[in-house]
Amino acid sequence: GAGSTTRQDCQIRLPGTVDPAETALRAVVGQQVSVAAARTAAARLADALGERLPPALVGDGPDLLFPTAATVAERGGEVLTGPARRTASIVGLAAALSDGTLVLDAGRDAAALRADLVALPGIGPWSAGYLAIRVLGDPDELLSDDLAVRRGARALGIDDLPRHATRWAPWRSYAALHLWGAATPIRRSA
Asked: Quick one: DSSP state of residue 68?
């Protein structure tokens, strides 16, 4: 109808990040849970361990910084809820970031970053691929196991996504964003 569109009608750019450690921790906090549950868990983590900004700096904006990797490594086990293995994965990732075992830097090789990430307990290929997109701007990560990517492919009549996606190389990250959009129509106000 009038005033509605789908995301695939919009210009697509790869999402980046200002804080790779926060993005990595949020990605792992959000593994295997809904987007809403991930937001809630990240907000609880920030509320419990984040640093409050002085009122003079805040004005009408946010007043809480996401906790550092060092803080999550040290105290995350006290405040994170859910399965013990998930908590251990988050704390382990935070420790690797804090002690320099894992370096998230835009200059890294994408394959090396993925390998370093999946070598950590509880970090899977989806999180590694997602972080390759967000941290490195990797243009060729499809995230083909992502539920929304698969739903978007079905919505567009794509039956064999891995085979079909070979044609999109080396731009599969952009295709993933288009497929996410095809899975979730958005409404624009008129």
From this structure: P
The dihedral built from the CA positions of residue 65, 13, 172 and 108, taken in this order, carries a sign that is: negative
* Closest listed residue to residue 132, CA positions, set 143, 122, 121: 143
Which positions are annotated as active-site residues? 146
> Residue holding tokens 């060092």?
70
Per-residue pLDDT for the chain (190 aa), expressed as one digit of tens each?
444 545 445 688 899 999 999 999 999 998 878 888 899 999 999 999 999 988 888 888 788 999 999 999 999 999 998 889 999 999 999 999 999 999 999 999 999 999 999 999 999 999 999 999 999 999 999 999 999 999 999 999 999 999 999 999 999 999 999 999 999 866 555 5
Q: Tell me which amino acid residue 177 is.
A: L
pTM of the predicted model, to two decimals? 0.86
Residue 43, SS3 per DSSP: helix
Give the torsion sign (CA, 32, 133, 97, 115). positive
